[in-house]
Design a protein that fits this description.
The chain is of the alpha+beta class and 384 residues long. It has 9 helices and 11 strands. It folds into 3 domains: 135 residues, no CATH class; 69 residues; 148 residues, Heat Shock Protein 90, CATH 3.30.565.10. Helix 1 packs antiparallel against helix 2 and helix 1 runs antiparallel to helix 4.
Amino acid sequence: MQIYSKKRRWKILLMGVALLISILSLYYTNRLVSELKLEEQNKVELWAEANRQLVIESSPGEPMVALILEIIRNNNTVPVILTDDSANIISHRNLNLPKNGQEEFLNKALEKMMRFGKPLEVNLGDGEFQYLYYHDSTLLTRLRWFPIVQLAVVFVFMIIAYIAFSATRKWEQDQVWVGMARETAHQLGTPTTSLLGWMDVLKMKEVDDNLVNEMRYDIERLQTVTSRFSKIGSKPELYPQDIVEVIAGMVEYLKRRSSALVKFNMEVAEPLKPYIPLSRPLFEWVIENICKNAIDAMEGEGDIRIKVFQQRKSVVVDISDSGKGMTRAVQNTVFKPGFSTKSRGWGLGLSLSKRIIEQYHKGELTVLSSAPGKGSTFRITLPV
């Protein structure tokens, strides 16, 4: 639980840092855009004044004419349109005119500039006015969109990197679990075989047959567990099995190994096609894991209800308990490797169960419902 709490805190911290960087980037760019916009506005005003001087001066000197023309020529970025007081276009600058339909293009550009903002008024004297319309330069427009595009690219890169790192980490975890499982199977193999030999010795010494048979049954179960661990990491063979009979057999075993205060109730809804492809040892392991977790959640006293029914082209197994239930946060992490609410738990049971159902049997294992104080229901869905 602590591992995943720390992981969530790191995610929140990284998201907060990314958000802060985004805000600072947008703030800086908007400030730069505002400064450039003011500079372009000053440039347009200077351009308008140069045009006014060129019109009103009846006989400007040659140096003055050269200066005015230089000012006009220097505006090579901001799109401008100069009109009379009847909105007739007199001149324009920095517009990429098409080869055909130039008049229509200019009229549309003028309409766009009229919506952009208030024009600059050029007073020519004697009640005559001209109006200078303008728009942001291409550079300013691109700069306005640059931080958004930049953040989008960074965001996409982060998503791709996160997916890649998550996939790599999951593969490494899988390799660790497979290695641990096979090593466990190897370590259990020899003592289990020895125990079977000692069982024969006990039988020869005329020990109570009932005790010997129960011990033999437990050793066989231990062999089954060893077999389960050895199959982790390799694709198991699936054979048509009666799922009702498989679950009923595991329930009988759990009844004999559980407190009398734990009540099992199994319900089979008809019609049902019980024969589905299963790896019996692995599927029994899943049922055992879920039921043992339920017994732990009930603290050795309560009801476990198992319902088997068919839903369209799937067989569904609902396993409910009357235990203490789970919060939403626990439900989100209950299937993750290493997660456990028990102080001595390894947190592998439900993680391996989900892997067995979803990867090997192409089914689904989920928490159907759970709430603190109201118990939990796990749902297994298997294709027919």
